[in-house]
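Onboarding guide, step 5: your first structure request.
Type a short instruction followed by the sequence, for example:

Predict the 3D structure of this protein.
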Amino acid sequence: LKTNLVKTTGWAPVGKRLIDHAPFGHWHTQTFVAGLGHDGLIAPWVCQDGGGHECPGVEQNGVFAGHSGLHRFHRKRMIIGIAGRKPRSARQACSSSQRLDHPRARQPARDDLAAAAAALAGLSRDGPVALATSPRFDLFNLDWFRAADASISRIEALGLGLELIMEGWGFEFPFNHRMQFTPEWEQLWMRYLIARYDAYNCVWFWTPLNEYEYYPNGDWNWKAAADRWLIRVSRWIKDVAPHGHLVTCHNGPVVPPFAERFRADPEAIDSVNFQSWGSRDKDSAWLAIGIEEVIQHAFAGWPGSRLFAERGYERNPEFENKLPHHEFCDRNHTRRSAWRGISQAMGIINGQENSWGPWMLLDWDQPGTADITVIRNFLTDTVPFANLRPAPGFVTGTFAPGYRPLPLLSQAAPWP
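The system replies with structure tokens like these:
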């Protein structure tokens, strides 16, 4: 790469001097080395002059290029030796604050540069070497699916219902890397899930993506593009899945309201499996303050169904505190958050820390389960839940946060 090959002619107003800019401006030759990956150049490296000298290692983020191929390191700084050659001492490595064209950065020999380029291209002096390539999204782990089959069949036999989330955490690969996990691969994955599980009666919901606002890049913030993606994918699922299960969305952020998010096609999403935890700090987690206000704002004008699907996970004090946001979600939080959802005429789903990945002790209930049982019996045996509606105007007065009564009135036998 020569920087003195600059165009010497051009256009300028009559009688005016032609002024333009030349790259770098120091009229030197530079050597550029990079690896050509499937999605662009990787590990670019620039040396001054054309070669003929030995180059020590330089500090740089990226990829280690050696004769054995590419070895990626995640978010770490390391010393890179060209073609596997290590610096003889730390002094020979350029500081991270120095430019690669620093005079002390001596030049690599042409043979070393050729070897480095070959390594980056997946070659060695003995021939091709193995390189990490794009995952095969058309190959499925059948052992994993057989284990899932056994669980789903058991749930079917017990008469329970499932929300099947088709894409897990949106901040994890491949769901945070849509340049690789393209719509074609996504449809293949979803089509396979539908073909395998849509016929089960226990599949109550298809949910395209857990906390769908992570789309497309793993950033947990609301984006209009995520709404458009969810509408498109939900319509596609309804066209492909033959058994008519509900298609839902599961949120992370609670704003903007869902009527605004999906106004382009509000019927594409059958139900919102809503998440809001209320207060969960040390002093007020037991009250789960604010849930009803958040629900009222989030569902203003929403014509579809809704379910209070995630409101916290009751902490198991016998576990090491690996999930700090669960720390103060105790039995009181479980009970009060449930009633706050009920007060907004929403069905509830209960969560416990035991069900999280570090433990997965699914046969060990926390104390709050007893309170959920009371709620269930009350709303099935005493007052049919389907007849109840929120009555925010029934109670007047001023109350401290979290202490306002939340009435429900029966449509079948209204109060006078």
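Each response can be followed by summary notes, for example: Residues 142-158 form the longest helix (17 residues).
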